Amino acid sequence: MSTGTVAKPSAAPKRPAGRRKLTWPWILLIVAAGLVLFSLVRVVSGANDLTSVGQVSGALQLAVPIGMAGLGGLWAERAGVVNIGLEGMMVLGTWFGAWAGYQWGPWTGVVVGILGGALGGLLHAIITVTFNVNHIVSGVAINILAVGFTQYLSNFTFAEAEGGSSKQSPRIDPITQITVPGLSDWLQDLQQKHWFLISDLAGVLGGLVTNLSLLTVVAILLVPATWWVLWRTSFGLRLRSCGENPVAAESLGVNVYRYKYIAVLVSGGLAGLGGAFLAIVSTGIYQEGQTGGRGYIGLAAMIFGNWMPGGMAMGAGLFGFTDSLKLRGGAENVHALLLLVALLLVVAALWQLYKKKYLVAVISAVFAVGFFLWYALTDQVPSQFVDAAPYVTTLLVLALSAQRLRMPKADGLPYRKGQGK
Asked: Along the 421 residues of the chain, how does pLDDT read in single tens digits?
């Protein structure tokens, strides 16, 4: 009698352990540790304006346009469309927002600025979704067209208006700003005492309740609203499926073209809102070239945030903060930032040592020593470095966060209706 050999089923290969999801306690702990680090740097360096009410308020104002551009990029790329044209859509938002704002009021300017950005989004959607042109090529073309188009329009609109010229618009009426009475003054007094941690916390909270534009409140609320729409509704599920696997989405009855169009239109509208914010709230006037590459930085903030609204908002806040450093305190604040970078590199070196990545730990430690020496042997940094600080921060953040990124699987890939049949 022969005995058969029963083969045991092979064990399923172990899936690599994924990254732990950050819970609220961990997020609050990270924020608290960051605040302690900032407070320590402020006390050691004497740069008391580092976490002042004015610094935080200015950083928030600078972060909003970047955040709106990043949020626009998130909508488009979650639907599978790469939107390099965010900069051009912001340019359209600044011009249309200023053009309508000085004639019919700031809120009308905001609405028309959104429509101007959405016009750029519509053009991008037609080129990429309908005609299947390379997304990068289309985005670059829109950036170039937007600049030339607004320059042409300015020649016979703003140039003929009282107080305007071919390169800038007349003054726009401001949007109402709110300040919480009593609380704002108390927090500002507490911040000016320069106590360790307490004054820094007062400065951060004071910046959130002092001279806050109503449009800033609207922009902040758009971040959780985007999260809810894209991750908590059936509409958002269908839209995100178009960016992950459009063929599978089509097989389930999803009109992929329609969702891509909606996503890119919303993307352009949000970028236009960021542009209108620049013209109406930040400066009160349209000026040629005032976007200053914020559309590209918004795209970097979105990538830093791993295509998630919360992470994107953190990235926009980081870039806005570094941008505000050069406006308040300039060289002194950026010089203090060298000490902060050195301390962060020390933390990174210890963490890599704990993970037994000795080479990375040694490299981090060497750079930490270099930044410590730079800080100790100088009193201020060159003005050129101060101006470049936001862009250097963009490159460093993207380089350090590149390993944990996961873009939508079908992002930027060509799609034709019925291609899965």
From this structure: 444 444 444 444 444 444 555 566 776 787 788 889 889 999 988 888 888 888 888 899 999 999 999 999 999 999 999 999 999 999 999 999 999 999 999 999 999 999 999 999 999 999 999 999 999 999 999 999 999 999 999 988 998 888 888 889 999 999 989 888 888 889 999 999 889 989 999 998 998 888 899 999 999 999 999 999 999 999 999 999 999 999 999 999 999 999 999 999 999 999 999 999 999 999 999 999 999 899 999 998 998 888 999 889 988 988 888 888 777 666 777 888 888 888 888 988 898 898 888 888 898 899 899 989 989 998 877 766 767 776 776 676 666 666 667 889 999 998 888 775 5
CB-based burial label for 245 (10 Å; 0-12, 13-18, 19+):
middle
Cα–Cα distance measured from residue 81 to residue 259, given in angstroms and rounded to the nearest whole number: 11
Instruction: Please report where in the chains the tokens 């600080």 appear, as a residue.
Output: 389
Q: Are 70 and 234 in contact (CB under 8 A)?
A: no
Q: Do 55 and 204 form a contact (C-beta atoms < 8 A)?
A: no
Global model pTM greater than 0.70: yes
Where does residue 406 fall: left (phi above 0), alpha (psi -120 to 50 degrees), or beta otherwise? Answer: beta
Number of C-beta neighbours around residue 374 at 10 A: 15
